[in-house]
Amino acid sequence: MNESSIKSSENGLREFLRAGEQAGARYRFASLGRTPQGTAGTQLARTAGESMEFMEHRDYQPGDDLRRMNWSAYARSDKLVVKVFRQEVCPHFDLIIDGSRSMDLEGTDKLAAALGLSAALSCAAENSGYSRRVFLTQEGCHPVRGGTDRPPAWQGLEFSSPQNPADAFRIQLPRLRPHGVRVLVSDLLWLGNPMDVLNPLSDRSAATLVLQVLAREDVDPGQTGNHRLVDRETGTTLDLMIDRPGLERYQSNLNRHQQAWRSACRQLGATFISLVAEDVCHDWDLSALVRAEILTM
Question: Which domain holds residue 160?
Answer without folding.
Answer: 3-29+91-296
